[in-house]
Amino acid sequence: MNVSVVVFTSDLRLYDHPPLRAALDGRRSVVPLFVRDAAVDRAGFAAPNRLAFLADCLRDLDEGLRERGGRLVVRSGDTVEEVCRVAAETDADEVHLAAEASAFAQRRERRLRHALEAEGRRLHVHDAVTTAVPPGAVTPASTDHFAVFTPYFRHWSRQALRRPLAAPRAVPVPDGAVSEPLPSRDGLSGLSPALAPGGESEGRARLAAWLRSGAEAYADRHDDLAGDATSRLSPHLHFGTLSPVEVVHRARRAGGPGAEAFVRQLAWRDFHRQVLAARPTAAHADYRTRGDRWRWGPAAAADAEAWRQGRTGHPIVDAAMRQLLHEGWLHNRGRLLAASFLTKTLYIDWRVGAEHFLRWLVDGDLANNQLNWQWVAGTGTDTRPHRVLSPLAQARRYDPDGAYVLRWVPELADAADAAGATRAAVHEPWKLPERVRSASGYPDPIVDLAEGLARFRRARGLD
Ligand SMILES: Cc1cc2nc3c(=O)[nH]c(=O)nc-3n(C[C@H](O)[C@H](O)[C@H](O)COP(=O)(O)OP(=O)(O)OC[C@H]3O[C@@H](n4cnc5c(N)ncnc54)[C@H](O)[C@@H]3O)c2cc1C
């Protein structure tokens, strides 16, 4: 029987997995392979929260394969070398891999193709595995990618998606494929205490529950910070324990304004991937430079550290930053206002913030993280690059009764009670009596909002 190697990367699932399906066609036996790539660790992407989630995903994938008569083969090292080694050990004549957008993934694909062809083996790369609509599938007439979301979304919505595939019934794995032990959560330190569990089973259960009882209200409630009414599917989409094609199909089938608004967000994910695939440098360099000369030096470093710790003295920002540390996940509205505060109110380089988010986010993703940071900083694809989100206005709008702030900054609850103030007063602790404020231990604001705004406008040459 001919042997194929299926290289799992950001597609850690058995349902709707085109590379696995193609490899199994013709009753071939397959080697389901995951390589823990040393270059990913060296580049600083192996954050503890994501390593823990990844360990859950690999364990679940292995269990799913064992139920089908197979098992997962895990190796560590350089992906290209390990894939070639496994292919040689098992006498595989072809390798299947999902296409991905980053410069690292594109380089890996080229190197792998070259190395396999030199040994007389074929590489098959599959689109629409890690995205619903692949980068490059829709383009404007004049250039290679869309730089504005709205027209992209119009084209994206008209694309016919392939039909989702069932999970295979059997996965025959040849004997010769030797595996290292599966990675585990044991021994990982620096994890968020309330980190979500990973794995395809978990992802599918979450998706089913979301479509049953969450998506319907999404259009109205997705921005309610305390309501926590978004899907929380982002880590599953990042690790590919859910297929974006399947998620879009199932959401469309569920129908209604909530599901429609949810599908629109999934299009944002593909949008950022097509930008990154066309402009890989946007992971690190301004997509559209505004000539910023960001603050740096000791005062900026102290401000950035207060931001990281959730001790800026602006409660809604601090609540968001504390949620990030505690859960390794953050509500989109929290990401937006915390990023705007760092890049605009404090006028600190978006890369400083993006790095901290990548250290903690379980869904931390080069395309989504870096390009959303650039969007907020005004160096990316936002058509209103100089907009500044006022933390206070955001707090009043998206946390009107202070419930979100009180969840993450509990010391302000006592302060508000002691002052006989309403719960909504927690958004402006500087108005509470000095005695109550200092007893709470909550810091004074590190920046005056009006001064921060004026500094930003001067820096961008707007005034
Ligand atoms: C500064 C900043 C950094 C971000 N970093 C990341 C990141 O590293 N990884 C990540 O997956 N998302 C990132 N986002 C986008 C967004 O905040 C998260 O995808 C979302 O909060 C995840 O929660 P959810 O799954 O409940 O989303 P839902 O609201 O339920 O949306 C469904 C899915 O749509 C996608 N999506 C939603 N909003 C966006 C968006 N603005 N851009 C791209 N895709 C989106 C996600 O895959 C999400 O799971 C970032 C946003 C900002 C402003």
Automatic annotation (TrEMBL):
Keyword Lyase on entry: yes
Photolyase/cryptochrome alpha/beta domain sequence ranges: 2-131
One of the protein's GO biological processes: response to light stimulus
Cofactor annotation comment: Binds 1 FAD per subunit.
Cofactor section: FAD
Domain of life: Bacteria
Family named by the database record: Belongs to the DNA photolyase family.
Protein name (database record): Deoxyribodipyrimidine photolyase
Residue sites binding FAD per the record: Y218, T230, S231, R232, L233, S234, F262, D363, G364, D365
Species for this entry: Streptomyces actuosus
